[in-house]
Amino acid sequence: MINRLLVANRGEIARRILATCRALGVETVAVHSDADAGAPFVAEADRAVRLPGNAPAETYLRIEAILDAARRSGADAVHPGYGFLAENADFAAAVTDAGLTWVGPPAKAIAAMGDKMAAKALLADAGVPMLPTWTEADQVTDFPVLVKAAAGGGGRGMRVVRDAAGLAEAVASASREAAAAFGDGRVFVERYVERGRHVEVQIFGDTHGAVTALGVRDCSIQRRHQKIVEEAPGVLPIEVRERLHEAAVAAGRAVEYVGAGTVEFLLAPDGAIYFLEMNTRLQVEHPVTELCTGLDLVRLQLLVAEGEPLPAEAVTPRTRGHAIEVRLCAEDPAEGFRPATGTLHRFAVPGVDREFGTLARAGLRLDSGVVDGSVVGVHYDSMLAKLVAWAPTRAEAARTLAGALARAELHGVATNRDLLVRVLRSPAFAAAEVDTGFLDRHPEVFAPLVPAGRVPLFALAAALAGAAARRVSAPVLAGLPSGWRNVPAFPQVTRFSGPAGEVEVRYRLDRAGGLAECATDPVGVADVSLVETAPAHVVLDVDGVRESFRVHRVGAAVFVDGPDGSVTLAELPRFPDPTAELAAGSLVAPLPGTVTRLHVEPGQRVAAGELLLTLEAMKLEHPVLAPIDGVVAELPVPAGAQVETNAVLAVVNPLEDAR
Predict the structure, then answer these.
(1) pTM for the model
(2) Residue 77: which H helix or E strand, with range?
(3) Rounded to the nearest 10 degrees, how much is the dihedral formed by the CA atoms of 579, 580, 584, 588?
(4) Residue closest to 251 by CA, chosen among 139, 127, 149
(5) Which of 101, 102, 138, 567 is deepest in the core (most CB within 10 A)?
């Protein structure tokens, strides 16, 4: 029996494992970096052990440090979660060698599947269909191809290459990213299937020889080869589903699999299936399988680790309804999915029925690694939470999920929320016309939920809420309307920095507090009147239709949630202080990170779009490109240096200025 479990992970998955342990009466131990000392998962564990440092290499990837934490805390078992050391065979072996229970497959199975090339050879012999694959770049003759990391997963170390000219740099870049993420820079190349669907089968094995399939998930909608929308059971013909189950179980039996695992496949437009990889761990998207089967997969992991056989409901699972999950990430899709950092001032999703568990009826589940006040840093993955809807039909699940996302209050950090809502509401998604190139073919889903023409209404709500807040806190005559004069004079003016530039609001209130005059110039709006105002809530009548706005102010930042989405504004000072101007041609860091490589030298002539340097943040590489044809005037930051947001990385002068 497992009595005290150490969770060798962080964030959302750590909280997920802790939730099941609480339900089963298992004591828990968290390990945490310095950056995570105040994180929710640390507070929720029964015990916590500090791993000094911040970077994964000095904290969550240090095997000896985690084993030492287990010894010091009296843990008798270790659960690796996903990512970090979850698919590290040496870690699994070290845990068992230390006399602890390893909640995962045997080290030999992890090793067999951890090397993607060896796994392909092994499973091909077991009859699992494979894509053409090359281990050397000069062997490749058939394009397009996909460069992939030989170890690890999660979309890191992957590059699509469409011609021979780009192969060498793609291999080098993928190798660097894989080495940084997994400590192994080996890559290989396989044929890339256009308009393929990414489908996968959840398998489970026990120590008594049983290997079963718990259903199919469709994870085709991806960015940077990382999944952002996942669903079960997926829209697939029955015969395709059966072939996927058979191939996945064959893969599991070939390595005598024990515990939770996922066998991933590429489904070609002609119906052919090809093995991609096998993940020897719990997947990020496991909640959709849990909701459709009613099974707690973490509970099953613990039972199997204790030597128990799989229960009957897992051997012959029953699928019910449809579940869709989205990954809510701190990133800006409009800027190439650039990761975002900062303080999450508010994180509230309406209508959530349960966190980290199965549902008895249709509804919403939230698996979150953050709460109000959480700090999103640069050291770890950008995923904040997963929101999952389960309903009798796919259409109902999509509608419920999109509605909850659109109404969520996500303040302080840029997220991919608007993109997710647009995807869920798109006609193509409704028709199940999905594949791994979905986002490339549907640029319309990148549009913000709030059109530019309606931003002035949100700014008006922010200005009126601000005025109400000032009246509430006024030391004298607090009952008078803001800015009211016995004889009408100039309107009040509030200026904001908005999503597309500056927004100026001009308004005047009458003696009853109503809107006597307003000049916000929203597109297509003829008449706006004030119905109700409070520091955190404003109701406007817009051409005869009442619209409610929720307003949350943090310093100069104002977060306004309205009927069609959310807008983040920053109130501008009436008399701004002078600021230092950047030199013309300066390129600044979009977020904190490390300059990993310099690709050019001062004085070098470059073309627009040419790679100048590479910035690494949130476990991903971010290229910094020349904005114009010109000459590199300065490279003030050396390779290996840490930089903060807005630090000058390079200065490129136009060619005419360089003569």
Answers:
(1) 0.88
(2) strand 77-79
(3) -90
(4) 127
(5) 567
